[in-house]
Amino acid sequence: MIVKIRRKAGMKSSAINIFVVLAITACVSAQALGQWRISTPRDTIVLHANDPKNSGISKFALTVGTDMYLQISGSYSFWPGQPNDGVDGAYTYNVPGWNLFTPIANPPVYNSALFDWGLYIVNSTQSGYYIPKFAPSDVYQSLHNYSARVPSLGNKFSFKINAPSGSYYNSGSGGLNIKLARWTAGIAVKMLSIDFGNVNVGTPVSVLDSIASYGIDPLQIDSLILTGTSPAGNSDFSFVSERGTRFALQTETTDEIKIIASPSSLGDINGQLDLYCHNADINNRHIIILLHVKGLKPTLILSPLSIDFGKVRIGVGGKGATNVYNSGNADLKITSTTYAPVAPTTDPTAFSRFFPPLPTTVTPQSIGQIKTFFNPKLRQHYHARLHVQGVNVPSDSVDLNGDGAEPVPVFSDSVISFGSVYSGDAVSKPLVMTNTGNWTCTVVQASIVGADKALFSF
């Protein structure tokens, strides 16, 4: 066990400065206000030399390996009528009848005899000591102000003005004032696990986290590093620390860390932000902030990529369907469809969507449909491309082809002249009908009309 003692020189100004450090209550910068933080454990214990039960126990215990910072002031006397004779928190400086040329560290040995008095400190049921035993090189302070770092053994600290016997307290006067605070730098993290939830791929979202220091010793942040991203190689997380990646945090101040997630792929993505601080207590020298985001992205896959309507009767039209497959893990929102003529086709209205109304949604791992109506107006070939646009997906297109078709009957003669025919004779002439169109011509009715229709037949 090693205890480090720090005692200032006997100048009055120096002594005042020592006590200002510990007397200041929790203090944070204006920048830290509104941010998350934690208070340094602090306590004050007053011991009276005339109280045989004089003892004080700290309000809190520190973990093993954590140092307590003590500031001890005041002095006391066990000799009635001798208020200027006495003992302080570390030394015996004047005793009636003793020829003390220099103060003696407590408990004093005078003329080969041990006088068991002084400030006794216990921080475990098995360990007790006087401050000077752990600081033989330190010197007496005429203003009776001392400071020390004492390692904790995991229990509350107990303080007592010890005396060789109970009778000493009957003539005791004065006492000691002890201020305590955690010395070892501590780190507290507002969020040790951050789940960004469902986020669209390529869309950055941010969360503000904070770390806070406590303890008298400034917290030394050695580095902040992003590691362990899974799937490996992804750069889906980033961060911005308001103080950089290597800095010192004075007691009870904070550093805000903006952590950004921008998923680059579908599904669960994990990572971690590692914080290293060499002077924190041993269990907090490596802090891990776990990160998670689920990348969401729809897909837009059209099938088939080409539709040939073939010959379609002018004035009747034809229908075709395009499947829209969403293989992603987020809803696909289709916002628009465009039918663009491909040269030499110039008619922009030959192809049109008749289902569904837009916008429309295709849920993950499902198939929707876009139905196209082909309405040719001429006997010609039509060529166009169907372009489909959605939200957060690349557009896709389908090639469309079709031919306008209709029958075109053409007769061999527009006028049939039989000339002069004698009564009772029968004369015939052929009439040929040819279909010059590209659609089957079906004759559903043929008749002769007119005033003399009874004279003709076929």
Task: Please outline the helices and strands.
Layout: E1 4-6, H1 12-23, E2 42-48, E3 55-61, E4 67-73, E5 75-77, E6 86-88, E7 91-94, E8 104-105, E9 109-110, E10 113-114, E11 118-124, E12 127-130, E13 146-151, E14 156-162, H2 167-170, E15 173-182, E16 186-189, E17 193-200, E18 205-214, E19 219-221, E20 223-230, E21 237-241, E22 247-249, E23 254-261, E24 267-276, E25 286-296, E26 301-303, E27 306-313, E28 318-326, E29 332-341, E30 351-355, E31 360-362, E32 366-374, E33 381-390, E34 396-405, E35 409-411, E36 433-435
Parallel strand pairs: 17-25, 27-34
Antiparallel strand pairs: 1-13, 2-15, 3-14, 4-13, 4-15, 5-6, 5-15, 6-7, 7-8, 9-10, 11-12, 11-14, 16-18, 18-23, 19-22, 20-24, 21-23, 24-25, 26-28, 28-32, 29-31, 29-33, 30-32, 33-34, 35-36
Structural class: mainly beta
As a percent range, the share of strand residues is: over 45%
* Most strands sheet: 9 strands, antiparallel
N- and C-termini, Cα separation: 130 Å
Helix content: under 10%
What is the count of DSSP helices, taking H or I runs of 4+ residues? 2
> What is the approximate shape?
rod-shaped
What integer value in Å does the Rg equal?
Answer: 49 Å
Mean pLDDT: 87
Count all strands and give the number.
36
Low-confidence stretches: 1-35
Describe this structure in words.
The structure is a single chain. It is built from two helices and 36 strands. It is rod-shaped. A hairpin with a 2-residue loop joins β11 and β12. 3% of the residues lie in helices and 47% in strands. Strands 1, 2, 4, 5, 6, 7, 8, 13 and 15 form a nine-stranded antiparallel beta sheet that branches. The chain has 458 residues and is mainly β. The longest helix has 12 residues. The termini are far apart.
